[in-house]
Amino acid sequence: MSNLQSSVLVIGGGISGMQVSLDLSKLGFKVYLVEIKPTIGGTMAQLDKIYPTLDCSLCILAPKMVDIYRNPNIELFSYSFVKNISGSAGDYTITIIKKPRYIKEDLCTGCGDCGEICSVRGIPSEFDTHLKTRGAIYIPFPSSVPPIYLIDESKCLYLNYKICGLCAKACNAEAIDFLQKPKEINLKVGAIVIATGHNQEMPDVYDSFSGSSPNVFSSMQFERLLSANGPTGGQIIRLDDKKHPHSIAFIQCVGSRDVHHPECKKYCSAICCMNSAKEAIVVKEHDPNIECYIFNTEIRAKGKNFYEFIEKSKNEYNVKYVNGHVSSIKENLDNGKLKLYYEDIDKGKVGIFEVDMAILASALSPTPSYYELLRQLNVGCNNLGYIGETDIILLEKKNIFVTGYSRKPNDIQMAVVEGSACAAKISEKLDSVRFQNIKKLKYPPEIPVKPEDEPRVGILVCQCGLNIGGIVNVSEVVEYVSKLPYVAHVEENMYSCSSDSQERIKEIILKYNLNRFIVASCTPRTHEQLFKNTLREAGLNPFLFELVNIRNQDSWVHQNEPKKATKKACDLIRMYLA
Q: What's the pLDDT at 78?
């Protein structure tokens, strides 16, 4: 391989693609990360919590998203797709099409002035699974990476009718560019990683389940309801009457493990048993009085601590498991409840059960872009719609690797493991060209801080979605902390680890001339280095930083004692301030 290239193309910016990219950059490779959506993060960015640890999903994901965005050796092509692949192992030529955002990315500050003034409203939000609306100019969610707005060209009045243009007038940065065109980019890479993720069918695909009731959700839609940054702010409500449900049914294997209907998948989607148990537990944490029922034909919990997690849902949270296959759901017009018709396996007869809300563990399948890539590579699929194991081996000989849900149905843990495994394999194949095309991260000069200088401390108190904010009265903590000695500025926010929060930290360090900084959020084990890097980017010594763990050491411990948890949060921050 005389023309061995030292760069790698990663197609897909979900958790597996991000893990590959970060590992490859550490191993000495230039990475081109291509994501078809406006933001990286994939499905994990839409989740509330992850199993079996019940960690906040965004708390795990956001630091990785920020690391991707900061990394000088990862070039991100968001809102882009691969048009063509040519060449051979170690020397591929890639053609990428970057779709127009109609925003100058180098000028957009993410202030949101354009989104506020946009006159086109009521467009279903893709990120919020159509449960919330957005404008014609928008950002998918506040922690998006890149944190740049885009214009929906199919809805924009100016792009279609040459009227309006309010966003351009409101943008002080002059970042609006209605003349942008698709841009073709050619790259040379030595290896390719396919990590295009999955899609989930919406409830309206299955007529026998959705009918006309707005209270039937896919599991992904329900994740958005549970999320603090979702359409209801984490409140569990029925969409028609806005009332809190008293009973919820989680229905397994909807559209999967079914060989009788051509529109259904023959395989198990791999995550549904655990995901439904997790969602039921989260519901119980929101309101212990809601009755949760999981309808299934069998439990397929196959990972580490997964069986214990299922047992925990039964024994500690009183989630009820029903051995039965649900065939249809109909709305009871007399009381507004949902009637579930199911096969009662234990009794050997048809049963009818009424609940206030139903959650469908709908089938997961590879994305359309996955099949387009296979067409370009001239690779076929097996009878399940995935690349066969033999073809995967042949592709790896050509330096083309497949990971995450693109390889087979699997969960977040396995997607991360497979991503790291791909990076290790690529490092072995391209070992001779490591460190040939990388850059070092440059930091600004450090702000001088002398021992005799009076401390000026900035404090950020994180809600961590509902992990902290659902128990600790964060506003009360902020008020208390603001009166402590040497505190120059304090504020609260939803997710301190997100990309927009990192920019906010840098802003307030400079604005208030701070020489110390404290973040009160979650564990230093996963987040301390992220914040220290942010301080370095702001020019502040990273060792003048403290991370107060008011999640693991407070809100999680005192879930049933909100007043005591609030007082303890105040005490912990005061201790670190001292």
A: 97
